[in-house]
Amino acid sequence: MLADRTAFVTGGSQGIGREIALTLADEGANVAVAARGDGIHDTAAAIGDGALAVETDVTDESSVASSVEATVEAFGGLDVLVNNAGIAGPTAPVEEVTVEEWEHTMDVNVTGMFRTVKHAAGHLRDSDAGRVVNVSSISGKRPLAKRTPYAASKMAVIGLTRTLAFEFGDDDVTVNAVCPGATKGPRIEAVIEAQAAELDVSYEEARRRLFTENAALGDLVEAGDVADMVAYLASEKADHVTAEDVNVSAGSVWY
């Protein structure tokens, strides 16, 4: 489905990002695994041929620029940009959130995507199958108490996606967002623990009340489900899908 295409995946060292990188590689793509941590080498090793580990800090424009150029130099171009790097931000009432926490969450989750798109744009326009897939969240669509910076950042990602879709449309570059629900893994476990502490309830009660009680499937999402949706949006099967924000939420959000 993605043979002879090159993808650049931020936050590819662990969790959803690692699963996305592995899935795109399974579909035939060359994959640049971009993140700050050493996990990029583990992900690249798991892929084998056609993988490139590029140490990348999305809050540093020079780091982003050099990583994109290294990818193009290694593979001869860039077709797919997956903006997955993100942080959970603080769990606290808004009056207890510091300006520094707010700005850092926005810098990673929103401005980081702007930096990668800025430096990938020319290469994506040159591609015959340019794709941008931004990982947002269902928290960008519905309230999540005491997570103001995170929710606001993920709403901004949807706005960025829609705007870029029209900016790139004349060059046949599609731009979409994937909005995962709570996804199994260490990050959501930490979020649930923090919410449980804030609500003064057990971990199990916080998990049920906040993330599974109102989901049609009554469960958290698998990272592989998110990766499969990203792969679809990156493929020729989604040639006429753009400016969309697609939920992978186990039925917890319907809009």
Describe the structure.
By secondary structure, the protein is an alpha/beta fold. The protein has 2 domains: 6-181 and 222-242, NAD(P)-binding Rossmann-like Domain (Rossmann fold, 3-Layer(aba) Sandwich); 182-220, no CATH class. It is built from 8 helices and 7 strands, in the order βαβαβαβαβαβαααβ. The chain has helices at 15-26, 39-47, 61-75, 99-126, 148-168, 186-199, 203-212, 223-234; strands at residues 6-10, 30-35, 51-55, 80-83, 131-135, 174-180, 245-248. Strands 3-2-1-4-5-6-7 form a 7-stranded parallel beta sheet, sandwiched between helices. Strand 1 (6-10), helix 1 and strand 2 form a beta-alpha-beta unit. Helix 3 packs parallel to helix 4 (99-126) and helix 4 packs parallel to helix 5. The chain is globular and about 55 Å long. The relative contact order is 0.15. The mean pLDDT is 94.
Q: Structural class of the secondary structure composition?
A: alpha/beta
CATH architecture of the largest domain: 3-Layer(aba) Sandwich
Order of helices and strands: EHEHEHEHEHEHHHE
Helical fraction: 40-55%
Query: Which segments are poorly predicted (pLDDT under 50) over 5 or more consecutive residues?
Result: none
Count of helical regions: 8
State the distance separating the first and last CA atoms: 28 Å
The spatial strand order of the largest sheet comes to 3-2-1-4-5-6-7
Please tally the β strands and state the result. 7
Classify the fold: give the CATH topology of the largest domain: Rossmann fold
Total domain modules? 2
The CATH fourth-level homologous superfamily of the largest domain? NAD(P)-binding Rossmann-like Domain
Biggest sheet statistics: 7 strands, parallel
Strand content: 5-15%
CATH class categorisation of the largest domain: Alpha Beta
Query: What's the overall average pLDDT, rounded?
Result: 94
Question: How much is the radius of gyration in Å?
Answer: 17 Å
Task: Give the overall shape, derived from the CA principal axes.
Answer: globular
